[in-house]
Amino acid sequence: MSQPAPGDDCRHPLLRVEDLRVDFHTRSGTVRALDGIGFELQRGEIMALVGESGSGKSVTAYAIMGILDAAARITSGRIQFGGRDLLTVGEKAMRSIRGRELAIIFQNPRTALNPIRPVGRQIADILLQHGGVTAAQAPRRAVDMLAKVRIPDPERRAAAYPFELSGGMCQRVMIAMALACEPALLIADEPSTGLDITTQAVIMDLVVELVASHNMATLLITHDLALAAEYCSRIAVMHAGHLVELAPTPLLFTMPRHPYTAKLIAAMPGEAGRLDMLAAIPGALPDLRRPDLPACRYAERCERAAADCREAPLLRLTSADGRQIACRHPL
Amino acid sequence: MPAPAVTIAGPTGETLLAATGLRKLYPLAHAAAPWRRRGQRPLLHAVDGVSFAIGRGETVGLVGESGCGKSTLARLVARLIDPTDGSIRFDGAEIGAVPAPRFGRSKQRAAIQMVFQDATDSLNPRFTAFRAIADPLIRLRNLSGSALRARVEEAARLTGLPLELLSRFPHQLSGGQKARVGIARAIAVEPRLLVLDEPTSALDVSVQIVILKLLQELKQRLDLSYLFVSHDLGVVRLLCDRVLVMYLGRIVESGPAAQVFAAPAHPYTQALLSAIPRPGARRSRIALEGEPRSPIDPDPTICRLYGRCARATDLCRSVAPPLRRVAAGHHAACHHAACHHAACHHAVDATETTQAAPRPLAVGS
Amino acid sequence: MTIAAFAGIRRFDGTLRHIAYVLAENPVTGFAFAMFSVFVLLAVFGPSLAPYDPLASDTAQALTGPSAAHWFGTDQLGRDIFSRVVVATRLDLGIAVIAVALAFTAGTLLGLAAGYCGGWADRIIGRAVDTIMAFPLFVLAMGIVAALGNSVANIVYATAIINLPIYARLARAEANVRRSAGFIEAARLCGNGETRIVLTQLLPNILPLMMVQVSLTLGYAILNAAGLSFIGLGVRPPTAEWGIMVAEGASNIISGEWWVALFPGLVLMAAVFCFNLMGDGLRDIVDPLRRT
User: Fold this and answer.
1) Which of A186, B89, B119, C137 has the greatest number of CB atoms lying within 10 Å of its CB?
2) Which of B50, B38, B112, B114 has its CA nearest to residue B85?
3) Inter-chain touch B277–A229, beta carbons under 8 Å
């Protein structure tokens, strides 16, 4: 399963999201959660989707996996994966793709695991479902996966329940479950939030190492720009359902083009010397239920905003090297 | 425990709070067979011999990961729970001896207040913001009527909370607004010491900065001292004058924040700092192998980090290192702590091995 | 301030709007509320609305079927069944309301103590509640009334006792969940004593759920009172009460006079039904999870 599929080569991205628009129908109105998201992901690449909470990064991930809430409506767009449009394949096909070619690891590992089933069995379940493994072989393979994610004493731990394991160990189990069938694409939704910082570092190092050895593509969802910067080759910055900037990591930090990106970088406590050197980002995410949202949803928080930012449709520029910027007056 | 000569590191040179030999042990009921008597039950050493001081106008950071006991220590200082052993002197008075339920009526209650991590959880869902802020004023300052309203509004103004939000309930407020209500409630009674238990970790990055700046401003304006508990080292570095690093119930390193972050002496601190994600090339990580040792009935003769530390030697296995000075005002509990002087002593001083608990912090060069 | 806390300090506009929304979404709930109002009106104004004296017997008119003069017909002693049913509303509702009020108050306080304090309080109260629940509740009620004597007051006490465990358990569970919440710790920092915390901080938070339970229990209490009277314990003839009327009319069904038992039975069923439906609607209104 880690062999390249026929027809798959470097020019053809593994995942291509085009003009994705997602609405949520709620009691208090329609939330326009995603408004024209598009990006590509190559095999073996690690890309980050970065944004504040509410920016739509998790919605994007769930849309790709096909596990959006029942209240969600995908109003337009395509998600090309392995030659198919995931939005049209239907639930039955998605069920076989999910787990086998597409995998996801969630935030809060202990709650994402089944609390009444030993972890070894949970991994075995996935192997049996997708992996072409017999019932006799599955337990052994599950233990192998636990060893692969460096859980000490894997035979004994395979019989443990999630509540008996620490947060870091549960996250390792989730990674084992996700990678059990050697998927082509791994989505990591805030995998280290909620973990201690030393555990976070170890888990991220593990993910990156395993992903590299399988030549998997990885989409890392996080609100931590520093984390994205350390592990990812490209970063996509999201704001209020728009992808405002997409660039290779070093370029993003040395030459941010979108005002929001610049503000995010300035808000990172890591490198600042004193507290007054940090600048808060003014304003707040706009209410996405409003019918009168400006075309550029950052316009109300932006000091460079001009009249055409609010009225004229959002200008999205994609350069030849894959950089994206959605701004009429970039830096 | 002999009374320590705990002196201060605060800018005005005056100690506000001095904790000596603090211990908090929890008996584990369920783990014991019912016929075992109370005295024989296994004990969880949440806080195990901690001594430190907070000076007037000082911000002391307390960092550590989950399970290190920093939340327990914060609650001991705020007198929400009683210490099993040790003393806490606040403004000269011994407050550790007063049981927590009675402390609510003592006059120091208003002097030590706390800001909680999760503002949503720490606000009563059925109380308006006004009522939440007014509560301590009613109970501790006996205010009512227009005096009460004036004071509540002043607290709201100080924390940047718009007055029209005072009639709202927590579920109608944003995360940042709830945080402000929590802070306003804490400062309303004019405390001297504020214990902040991860006050910004539940907030968005942008809101965090605003709240941190607010806290710094309040500290200067109201002449407060802070005990700032956090797992976020970046924030601690920016806000704190001194920092205490905790691991498994003990302080493993302490010193001026800038120095501890620039030149950490204890292996655990070094591992913590190396784990912070940074843009650019990945630094060489100092990885801690395995899982932390059990805090239940820990062996007092082994260094708590033994088994995870790359520098471990037999000495670490037979003698638990006390806090030892590595530089001016900078202490670390390690036999092989990095030294900042040319000559470096790794040999253990014979007189230090006789003590089971770490020495009290003797600050000052 | 304490009064205000007990009142819950509601913002009326939001609450009313939510109530209107729930009633609009779920017309059955609206219907239940309407029925409830009718019952309350009957209970309050019953005796003056009844066309005939419920106790006046007229053997000449005995066992006549429903007609224009007697909407529900007459019973064996010639009494107008409609009047009796209307007047009985006050008695049945009264018994139920008082019994539930007693059960609610005692159960909530005990449950709060058990859930908040834990330890021995929890153990003792828990065992006491378990003891009550070990019996089939109706049988226990029968036993209590039989032991204490046949009177309306004893029906009330018996009903209160058998409904107490529900409130005690609910209050205990809610208190247990919230006792380690941040706002409880914050209340201690503000100088509140433990009793004050339970009454002013904790109680307002669990009251809404308890109120929902009240509506459901009312239905059960009415049924309980009627059931006890049906088997001859409690209310004695010639008092008008739904249960007794059904008992008296039961034997007449075979001889073809179906109306004697049917109408009181239908009204009893309507009352219980109405309270249950109302309870569901109340849950929608007060459950914070369903609020936008």
Assistant:
1) B119
2) B50
3) yes
